[in-house]
Design a protein that fits this description.
Largest sheet: none
Shape: globular
Structural class: mainly alpha
Order of helices and strands: HHHHHHHHHHHHH
Oligomer: single chain
Strand content: under 5%
Helix content: over 70%
């Protein structure tokens, strides 16, 4: 009778590495978030509901979530376009353009906010010309969207770029040789391959924009009911020692962001199964 030997893994050490992974995630994410939710749970339902449904708070939700969705959608389109240009074309200064994509990662958000105000204020380099057409950016909701778009662009570009690099140009040539026009090739060949990466980049850009504070606080003007974002309101509540109010609003943001990411990841899973990737 043969004795079944335990199956050996090609790469050993799974137990140790998994234990270290869970420990690291617990220290960095699970324990802080869990403590935060437990602190919120100490509040009564009435206190929690009153804190998260104030008119000023609801107005900040509209701007934060609406502005983040708009900014992420803009980055979805133009981020994919930037990634396409960087992968498929050769031109002078390409390395410089590629490095500039990561600029929002390296630049402190407060510095980015000051730079945006310098550009888009009524007397700024760009804002003074926009004023001639009646377009105001600084201290308006449009300025908030501009700031959120600025900080979210690299997430889409860097997510789509590796997928485009692995996408063989022969697929497009084969599509063209079979009589497909460029629009059909994009719709039937390129987009299905890029869809999971596009959705991932969209989710990352949205999540980053939703929690942004530094670059927005300068250009928004922080006008209640108009240009006040939810992260700023949380900071204001904490500075006023209203920790329960800050925790309640933060919990709403946390749950909403988690739900949004869950939906987008579900769509990503569906597209992966749909197109066999």
């Amino acid at each position: 009778m043969s004795i079944a030997l335990p199956r050996r893994r090609v790469i050993p050490g799974f137990g140790l590495t998994m234990g270290f992974t869970l420990l690291y995630l617990s220290l960095v994410f699970l324990i802080p978030v869990g403590a935060f939710l437990l602190y919120t749970a100490t509040m009564s339902w009435e206190t929690f509901w009153n804190a998260v449904t104030q008119r000023q708070v609801v107005a900040s939700y509209r701007l934060s979530f609406g502005g983040s969705l708009i900014a992420a959608t803009i980055n979805l389109v133009f981020g994919a376009l930037v990634a396409w240009v960087l992968v498929r074309y050769r031109f002078p200064g390409k390395r410089l353009v590629d490095a500039l994509v990561d600029f929002p990662f390296a630049l402190p958000t407060a510095v980015a906010g000051i730079a945006l105000v310098t550009l888009y204020a009524s007397s700024g380099w760009v804002g003074q010309y926009l004023e001639l057409f009646g377009i105001r950016v600084a201290y308006t909701q449009l300025g908030v969207i501009v700031a959120l778009t600025y900080i979210g662009l690299p997430f889409v570009v860097r997510t789509v770029q590796p997928v485009l690099e692995d996408l063989e140009a022969e697929w497009e040539e084969a599509s063209a040789s079979l009589g497909a026009d460029r629009l059909t090739t994009v719709r039937r060949v390129i987009l299905p391959a890029l869809m999971p990466a596009l959705l991932t980049g969209y989710a990352l850009a949205f999540a980053r924009a939703l929690g942004e504070y530094g670059s927005v606080v300068f250009i928004s003007g922080n006008l209640p009911f108009r240009t006040e974002i939810t992260p700023l309101l949380i900071v204001a509540k904490a500075e006023q020692y209203d920790y329960h109010g800050a925790a309640a609003i933060g919990t709403v943001m946390l749950l909403a962001a988690f739900l949004m990411l869950l939906v987008i990841n579900g769509l990503q899973w569906w597209t992966s199964r749909r197109y066999g990737q």
